[in-house]
Amino acid sequence: MSNNNDRNAADSTLGNLSGWPHSQYRKRKLDVAFTGSGSEYFRIWIVNLLLSLVTLGLYLPFAKARRLSYFYSNTLIDGQALGFHGDPWKMLRGFLLLAVLTLAYGFAARFSPLSAMAAFALLCGLWPALWRAGLQFRLANTSWRGLRLGFTGSSAGAYAALLPLYVPALLMVAGQFLFAPERPDPRAPMPLLLGLSMAASFLLMLLMLPWGVARIKRYQHGGYVYADQQTELTVPTRRFYGLGLKALLLTLLPLALLGALAAIAVAVYKPLLFWMMLALPLAYLLYFALITPYVSARLQNLVWNGTASELLQLQSDLPARPLAWLTLKNWLLTALTLGLYRPFAAVHTARMRLQAMSLMVEGDLDGWVARQSVAQDDAAGDAAGDFFGIDMGL
Amino acid sequence: MAPRLQLEYFDGRSARPQRAEIQLQDGQLQLACGLQHHQYPLGSVRWPERQRHGQRQALLPDGGVLSCADAARWDDWARASGLRDSLTVRWMQNWRLVGTALAMLLAVLLLAWRWGLPLATEAALRWLPPALEQQIGGQALAQLESHWLRPSELPPAEQDALRQRFATLVKQAHPPGQAPAYQLHFRAASTALGPNAFALPGGAIVLTDALVQLMRDRPEAVLGVLAHELGHVRQRHGLRLAVQASLVSAAAGLVVGDFSALLAGVPALLTQQAYSRDFEREADAEARRCLLAAGISPRVMLDFFERLAQQRQHAASLPIAFSSHPADTERKRFFSEPP
Questions:
Q1: H or E element: which one contains B205?
Q2: Residue A166 and residue A205 in contact, taking contact as beta carbons nearer than 8 Å
Q3: Could you tell me which of A266, A387, A285, A294 has the C-alpha nearest to residue A331?
């Protein structure tokens, strides 16, 4: 901000005759375009899928590198495509490491409660580090105009960001440990203290969720680097609570309405209950097809509109309703075609999400230079991100 | 004269695009940019894959990027310079080959479902410790007891008599030491379960009071039902289903996974149904074998199926669990075949 003032001051003292091209001082809006095609991605997807299945999954990192390259080379910011530099052989290493970890976890979880607890604790301990490594790998291997992006979030920051989500879970486990009877009698009602501690932990989790999401996003969006620009997320936590409240209302209102309707229907005509039972899974599906995109569209706008560096300001103007309809259409067609529509769905969703984005840049990009050459060798984090479905929101 | 291509070059240190010209010569990529000249061995450059859409970017080993917005011009230059598409790219760019890939994909899935999955399950079963099976079964029983089951209300004498007769039948039907270990549990169940019996991983067999009462005048049919459940125990069907379910959902996750966990669950459910029908047939065969070995006619089961059908008509319950069993007519025919 102070820069702006200085510059304005300089402009006025020199009578706006500084000799610099005026355009350099103006903000310029860079649009994002996506040129991928569903039919082309379908062909890539089919061959990737066949090779992945035949190699029992070993081809997955190569398939992923190709998929990312395709989406990147079709994502044009101000007419320049993104570049993906990730080495699939390194990604394979990370993928194998994670596969071993997950298998060990799955096995331990089934073997005995104690080893399951130990494995869970280990995973909780490792997860933030893997998450950070994934962000580092992905950003460091993404370039635009020949400059690599970067991620500067620290390990300690990753643990601190995820802590609020761990606290209620820990409380729940502690409650089990303290209040659960030695030999549970299935017919006896749940002990009061156990029930209370469970309910309290759940309520706490619900209350802390928006705060947790805010912390996570603040960590992610506070670590992005391009040239000498480091971004920062300046959205107050209360706006995450606002979004959470809206989502909660959108969940509870239809539920209450449905309950009331069901009560009336059953009072009038009893066999209707059977048909309502049949319609319930459909309503459930419909609900998720509509509410999930609504929340994610609002979240994308909230987070990206609040992301800026000194000279860069990101913008997102993703309308919730079209995204919800698109998602519903994608689900239906994917189900009807037994999954074959999925690549088309992925391309359509990417187009809608990406083209809603834009960048405001101050100054002349041509003069920007790399801060340092960013190299990140460990791809384990990237595979972890993919494995557990952590997405960077774009 | 090797063909040249004009494009934009980023040196990896500055965001400024520079006009540059490239050509392939002496097995090297020659890059001319203003007064600078660079060359790179062909193998050290990461070449773009040919596709219809998107820009072409070649990634240079020193962090530089060659960018060509006009994809067609790049493709012409690459072809004229003798850069060959990889096998995978040629495959992906040809609709007919993609059709073949789709057919192969379906064939692979079919093969995996028919042979691969049972084989993988078999291997996994050999690896899993028996303690694990006991534990899963114990948890399942505890779960059932907390929601559906109560202690049996049958007179202890009746329970003991059935226990005795079944033990004898098992002894007669198997060579010494070969009989699978089982534990028989008598339980009263809620009406939703009705006359029922089921086997759990680890060898627990649960028999509901309603079934014993339904066949009180034909205890041989109860023995047949128990022998059917023993068939499940012997083939470790419970654990097999659990292992198969995890394998199928892992494979389905590969296909539609990150799209929706719900959609990925559907194939798992469908295969589960189909496999469990096969398992029921196997268990029926075991029941028939045991009955014959004990000198009981398998036709006693016909009465059981008939009474069960009547019972089902009276109680207008939801047909939840029945799709996993073969049709009644098929099972009746199987048990009425002469030995």
A1: strand B204-208
A2: no
A3: A285
β-bridge mates for residue B119, sequence order? none
Q: What is the dihedral of CA A14, A16, A21, A24, to 10 degrees?
A: 100
Closest CA to A226 of A82, A99, A338: A82
Determine the distance from the C-alpha atom of residue B107 to the mean position of all C-alpha atoms in its chain, rounded to a whole number: 16
Rounding to the nearest 10 degrees, give the CA dihedral for residues A115, A116, A118, A124: 160
Give dist(CA B264, CA A339) in Å, integer. Answer: 9
Sequence letter at residue B75: D
Ordered strands of the A229-230 beta sheet: A229-230, A224-226, A147-151, A142-144, A80-84, A75-77, A27-34, A357-362, A312-316, A307-308, A232-233
pLDDT tens sequence across B75-114: 999 999 988 888 899 898 889 999 999 999 899 888 988 8
Q: Are strands A75-77 and A80-84 parallel, antiparallel or unpaired?
A: antiparallel
CB neighbour list of residue A244: distance below 8 Å, 6 or more residues apart: A209, A210, A213
- Joined together, the tokens standing for residue B294 give 């004990």
- Measured in whole angstroms, the distance separating CA B234 from the mean position of its chain's CA atoms is 21
Is A315 at the interface with chain B, CB within 8 A? no
CA A274 to chain B, closest CA, distance in angstroms equals: 9
Residues B281-299 as b or e (16 or more Cβ within 10 Å = b): bebbebbbbbbeebebebb
Q: Which of B337, B330, B339 is nearest to B295 (CA)?
A: B339
Instruction: Summarize the confidence of residues A228-254 as an average pLDDT.
Output: 91
User: Across residues A92-111, what is the average pLDDT?
Assistant: 72
pTM summary value: 0.77
Chain B CA closest to residue A141: B63
3-state secondary structure (DSSP) of residue A318: coil
Question: DSSP states of B321-334 as a string?
Answer: GGGGSPPHHHHHHH
- How does DSSP classify residue B113? I
Cβ-based contacts of B93 with chain A (< 8 Å)? 43
Q: Of A380-389, B83-92, B274-283, which gets the smallest average pLDDT?
A: A380-389
Instruction: Write the pLDDT tens digit of every residue in B165-211.
Output: 999 988 888 888 888 888 999 998 877 777 888 888 888 898 889 88
Among B11, B98, B256, select the one facing A46 at the smallest CB separation: B98
Q: Which of residues 139-168 of A touch B (CB under 8 A)?
A: 143-148
Q: Which of A54, A146, A367 sits opposite B10 (nearest CB)?
A: A146
Terminal-residue alpha carbon distance, chain A: 27
